[in-house]
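retry 2 of 3: previous attempt timed out while embedding magnesium ion. Reduced batch size to 1 and resubmitted. Inputs unchanged:
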Amino acid sequence: MKMNTMNNVITSTGSVRCRGVSKVWGDGTADELVAVDNVDLDVAPGEFLVMLGPSGCGKSTLLSMVAGLEQPTAGTIEADGQPVTDPGPDRCMIFQQSSLYPWLSVADNVGFGLRLRGTAKTRRREVAQQLLRTMGLGDMLDKHPDQLSGGMRQRVAIARALAMEPRVLLMDEPFAALDVQTRSKLQDFIGQVKRDSGASVMFVTHSIDEAIALADRIVVFTARPGRIKASVTVDLTRPRDPRSPEYHRLNDHLIDLMRDEVDRAFAQQEGSIS
Ligand code: ADP
Ligand code: MG
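retry 2 succeeded.
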């Protein structure tokens, strides 16, 4: 555990280790489908790992197994050296569409998990206040979700996850439903949150730009069945400048890695329609 002196939020970093992880949906049935195939993947403590791959390649499936929401058909997943068998507060998942409780205030949404944990009301409000202030939502504590924009709601969902002091943040295309400007703001913001909290992040996207904006390392997946095609360390200085030659080189490299996979994924989808 490390105490963050800037905003006084206690956080800690975690590691994830996947070995030979596969997921077959409908195993043994006529609809059998191999979604993830024999994936070895490590996430170092404090690392921001982006999982990049075409639609339908098994990214969400892999993430939900790390979350403990689904079990692998084969292989093992460990978080901080412990086998993952169930969802746990050490691994918080954030989805594209956040599901805040509409009848609760923003502060109570952020403090919801803490309430289940038995944290006192005054402390819950304190934590919510700290987190929401960091996220530029310091004035929103007593509002309700329907009074917020999509980008604000997504920030509240992230604050709610951070309130649980997760060691690993699992983010499944969390900004995909937002407009370009809001998305870019939230990318800056999540980078900051990650640096402040020290949590590890596994972040799924199909956007090369988003991957380069955020990642310490990008793992590119093949079309289904999802396998790891390449692991690319991003050593560009932050914030990343889309106009720099290094950015262009990396972008071109990722486009090359993705091109065949996107074509294959598209062919698979067409095949399944006809
Ligand atoms: P991605 O997140 O990369 O777009 P997913 O992990 O959602 O891909 O899906 C991978 C494949 O597994 C797809 O072909 C999808 O239709 C299938 N799939 C996902 N979830 C389920 C499920 N619960 N039951 C059966 N098939 C599923
Ligand atoms: Mg997905």
